[in-house]
Amino acid sequence: MSMKHTAALAALLLVSATPFARAADKPTDPQIAHIAYTAGVIDVEAAKLAIEKSKTKDVVDFANDMVRDHEAVNVQALDLVKKLKVTPEDNATSQALSKAAQEERAKLAKLEGAAFDKAYVANEVAYHKQVNGALETLLIPSAENGELKTLLETGLKIFQGHQQHAEHVAGMLK
Amino acid sequence: MKAGVLIRPLAGALALALVASPALTATIEVTIDKLVFTPASIEAKVGDTIEWVNKDAFAHTATEKGRWEVMIPPKSKGRITLKKAEAVDYFCRFHPNMKGHLDVGP
């Protein structure tokens, strides 16, 4: 593990524990595709929980935006892996992400009303921050294929937008 | 009552006159590609139309906070006709990191 990766991973660890910390070695393109897709699915699942549970229009609207955008990114990702004849490969990072997300969803599922709204939106801020950090420091620099790199870069801009959007919604809930 | 009858054809003539002079206004195109407004800054005049052409697979908006919002669906267009001379900073409400600027002259 290079110094650069060590620093990047240390930064990620400050944001949230474990998931990306296991990606000690440079991920391959099939692994990167799997991680990016998994990250999108996780956010869609969290959003669907919010649509089901929240009664706050700003929160439900935000969740609908997340479903729409992440599903659109993942359609593009699937089209690309098909075109490149790459089979996304499950890996420790994807598994750690899924496990952390499952725990977070279980926590959120127990909350109601304003407590749910607050926890969901706070997690959206933290989660997008974490994924953006991983995209910037690990996934984009590691991607070999140019088209995959471009899609990840677009994804980064979208997720940075979501982070700001989530921060805005969090501000409104206060 | 009589006045109303008289005014109606007048109003019709006026509307026709307005429609008949489209050469004075322009439609200015702003492209959205990979979450970027291009050109990011536009100079226009009152009466001009801004048309956003969205090449992304994502929905965007052009929004001036608290004032107006144009929805721009994926692979589609959205437009607004400028009514006031002013400088406007706008952004995408879904992705607030997308920013644009309009300088509207009289």
TrEMBL record, chain A:
Residues 28-168 form the DUF4142 domain. InterPro entries: DUF4142, Ferritin-like. Keywords: Signal. It comes from Mesorhizobium waimense. It comes from the Bacteria. This is DUF4142 domain-containing protein. Gene3D superfamilies: 1.20.1260.10. It holds the Pfam family DUF4142. Residues 1-23 form the signal peptide. The keyword Ligase does not apply.
From TrEMBL, chain B:
InterPro entries: Amicyanin, Cupredoxin, EfeO_Cupredoxin, ET_Amicyanin. Pfam families: Cupredoxin_1. Residues 11-102 form the EfeO-type cupredoxin-like domain. SUPFAM superfamilies: Cupredoxins. Keywords: Signal. The keyword Disulfide bond does not apply. Residues 1-25 form the signal peptide. This is Amicyanin. It comes from Mesorhizobium waimense. The lineage of its organism: Bacteria, Pseudomonadati, Pseudomonadota, Alphaproteobacteria, Hyphomicrobiales.
